[in-house]
Fold this sequence. Notes:
The protein is α/β, with parallel strands linked by helices. 48% of the residues lie in helices and 16% in strands. The chain has helices spanning 2-8, 14-22, 28-48, 54-63, 67-76, 97-107, 109-124, 170-203, 205-230, 252-257, 286-301, 335-349, 367-385, 438-445, 449-464, 470-475, 492-499, 507-521, and strands spanning 130-134, 138-144, 156-160, 164-168, 237-238, 243-249, 265-270, 275-279, 310-313, 319-322, 355-359, 388-392, 408-418, 421-430.
Amino acid sequence: YETVREALKPIGDMERILTRVALRSARPRDLTRLLSSLAALPQLCSELGHCNAALLANLSEQAGNYPDLVELLRRAIIENPPVVIRDGGVIADGYDDELDELRKISTGAADYLLEIEQREREATGIATLKVGYNRVHGYYIEIGRSQSDKAPAEYIRRQTLKNAERFITPELKEFEDKALSSKSRALAREKALYDELLERLNEQLALLQDTAAAVSQIDVLSCLAERADSLSLCRPQFCQEQVFEVTQGRHLVVEQVLEEPFIANDTLLDDSRRMLLITGPNMGGKSTYMRQNAVIALLAHIGSYVPASATRLAPMDRIFTRIGSSDDLASGRSTFMVEMTETANILHNATPRSLVLMDEVGRGTSTFDGLSLAWAAAVELARNVKAFTLFATHYFELTALPELCPTMANVHLDATEHQDHVVFMHNIQEGPANRSFGLQVAKLAGIPAPVLDAARDKLRELELGDARPAAAAGAAGSPAQVDRFSAAPAHPVVTALETLDIDGLSPREALAALYELKARLD
C-alpha cells in the first residue's frame, strides 16, 4: 500500500474539480490540479498492477488514462496561473497564434514608449520629460510645472496636476488606441480559449467522473490498509449465524489519546443473548464500551479491518443510537423530548438485524416516569424488536429484567474504592454492578466538600428509609441500592386484605368486611 499511497499524492480532489468543470466555474488552478491528477494516473495504475486483488484490477481499469487531455492541458495552461481568468495571463504562449500576436503588440508597448520618451526629450530639450500611463487617462507626456511653457504647440493638454502638466500628441493617441485595443482583444481571446478548454473537458466528463470515483475508492482502501497495519487491526469474519462476537475490542479514538494502555473488552451477542444491560459507575467506561462496538460493526461493514484481536458478526442493516443529552430549543424540544424522539425512532424502525445503543434512557424526567419508560423500552427491544442491544443504565431496578426476559444479560464495568477515592477498572464483568460511585465522581469533578457531606447525609437517609433495609439487602447478597419499585408503601386496603382470615369468617362477617373495605376505598 505504501507505493500506491505515494502514487496518489499528486492527485487532487478530482470530484470537486470536475463539478466546477461541469458548471463552467473551474478556476485556472483547478485545471493545473486536474492536469497533475491525470498525469499521475499511469503510475497509479502501474502500482495497482502489482496487486492480485480483482477489485483493485477493476478499479485500475476504471481509473483509465488520458494522454490527450494531459497534453492539451499542459500546452494550454501556464505552470503557475493566477487565481482567476479575469485579468488574463492564464493561457500559455505558443498555444494560439492569434493570442500570441495580440500579446506581442501589448508587450512591445514598453519599448515603444521608451523610444518616444527619448525622442521627445531631445526634441524639446526637457530632460525631465516622462511618458506614462494610467487606467483613467491612458498614455500621456508629463512635464514639470516650471517647464510646461516649453511644451511644443502640437502637445494637447490632457490633465493638470499640482506640480506637473500632462499632454497627449496625435502619435501617442494613435499608439494608445492600438495598444489598448490589442490588450482588450487579447483578454477576450484568452477567455474564449479558456471556455473552449472547459468545453473540451466536458466532452469527456462522464469518463472523468468514473475515474474520480475509482481514484477515491483506491484512496480509501489504501488508507484503510495503512491504518490496519499501523494500529494492529484484525480482519472481521462475517457469518450467517446471528452473532456479534468481539474479542479484545478497542475504541480507536480513545486509544490514541490515552497515555496509559487501553483496556480491551470482549462482547458476545447471539440468539440466546440479544441484550446486554450495562451498569457501573459514571466514567467507568460504559459509553466507550458501547461506542467501540458500534465503530467495530461500522468499520466491518465498510470493508475495513477492526480494532480487536478477533471479530465474528452477522450482516446488519442499521446502527441506532440514543446517546448523550442535547436539546433543540429552536424547535421547542426539551432534552427529554429529544431523548424520547430518538427512542421512538429506534422502537419503530429497528429490526432483528440492527445494532441498538441505548445510553441512560429516562433520565430527563421524574424517577418513576423515567424508570418505567426505560423498563418498558428495554422489554420491547428484547421481546418484540429483538435487535442486538447494548442498554446502559443507572436504574438498578432494570437488572432484574433477565429474570423476565431470558435473552437479556447483566454486565457491568468494575470499579473499586480506596480511601474515599474511586479507581475505575474499565473492565467488563458479568452480572450487575453493586454501586454507582456517584459521590466519588462528584468529588473528582470538584464539587465543594460541604455539598458532598450534605449529599452523603441525604443518601444515608434515603437508604435507611427504603422499604427494604440496606443491611438486609446486603445480607441477601443483593446490591445495597434503593429499589424504586419496592420503596412505595402498600395501600391500606392491600394491607387489610393480607391480614384478613377469609376462611375463618362467617358469611355475615365476610359481607361486613367487604363493606368496610369498600368504604376505605371510597
